[in-house]
Prior knowledge:
about 20% helix, Thiol Ester Dehydrase, Chain A, seven-stranded mixed beta sheet, alpha+beta
Amino acid sequence: MLNGFRFQHPVEIRFADLDALGHVNNAVLLTYLESARIAYWLQVTERTGLAALDMILARTEIDYRSPLFFGESVVVGVRAISLRRASFVMEFRALERASQRLVAEAKKTLVYYDFTARESLPLPAAIRAQLFAQDPELREG
Length: 141
């Protein structure tokens, strides 16, 4: 079910991720998506360290489909789906690994950002090329 997601990030569920109902808390699932987003960005841009995280999260939209429980594991598929001058939209799909059960689907809008100047910047041509190389079906506009 992760067809079309060339980048996939595995996540192990920890006891600390559970809420009082015994399943992974919804807020924790968002942190799984964030971990996958950062791993995607560092791999695609071939950079390392906090200075490489030159983007800010502007929007998150998530649909929770199925709960996760202790002892299960999840894999998060990530891809860039649209690109603008200074921003891009990423799509996520999270599956429980063993059963391939859909856990969540999400979209996030990221803005390329200069933290010193505190302003958005156009995405550099090199990063645009790296995003297109990773996700060839990425569209502009």
